[in-house]
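$ ./design --mode recover --in tokens.txt
reading tokens...
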């Protein structure tokens, strides 16, 4: 997963890059739903659950090297957004936890077919990403422009 996210080229817009990385994360998770579940300690009903990821302000620990790498990419990307001044000063791990909560919920609902076509699911997640970024202090106009830039990057 982390390798897939790392393939997103860095631009001068850290929010667009974060959105494009989120898209890569979601694509990977939807292409590998069983592995995604396993990374977070959610496997078949006969296997006890375990903490696949622990993300606190003290430390971030994942049960797998892949999970640890993915968490570090997300935290680093959000730190870049914070450093750019696009959102108010916040610990990147706290913002990452918010985005991970939203993305994780979206991915599991999409895996279950809750949003029907993947295009509709993408619209839900894109709006949620913009809303979260605005809630963290970005302007709606800039967040929407960054989303469009990310779409251009990912589809081009």
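writing sequence...
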């Amino acid at each position: 997963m982390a390798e897939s996210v790392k393939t997103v080229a860095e631009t001068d817009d850290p929010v667009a890059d974060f959105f494009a990385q989120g898209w890569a994360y979601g694509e990977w998770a939807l292409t590998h739903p069983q592995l995604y579940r396993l990374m977070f300690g959610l496997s078949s009903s006969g296997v006890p659950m375990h903490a696949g990821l622990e993300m606190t302000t003290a430390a971030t620990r994942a049960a797998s090297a892949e999970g640890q790498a993915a968490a570090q990419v997300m935290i680093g990307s959000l730190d870049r957004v914070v450093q750019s001044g696009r959102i108010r000063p916040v610990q990147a791990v706290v913002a990452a936890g918010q985005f991970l909560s939203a993305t994780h919920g979206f991915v599991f609902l999409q895996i279950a077919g809750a949003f029907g076509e993947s295009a509709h699911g993408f619209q839900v997640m894109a709006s949620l990403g913009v809303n979260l970024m605005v809630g963290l202090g970005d302007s709606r106009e800039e967040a929407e422009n960054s989303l469009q830039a990310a779409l251009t990057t990912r589809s081009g």
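exit 0
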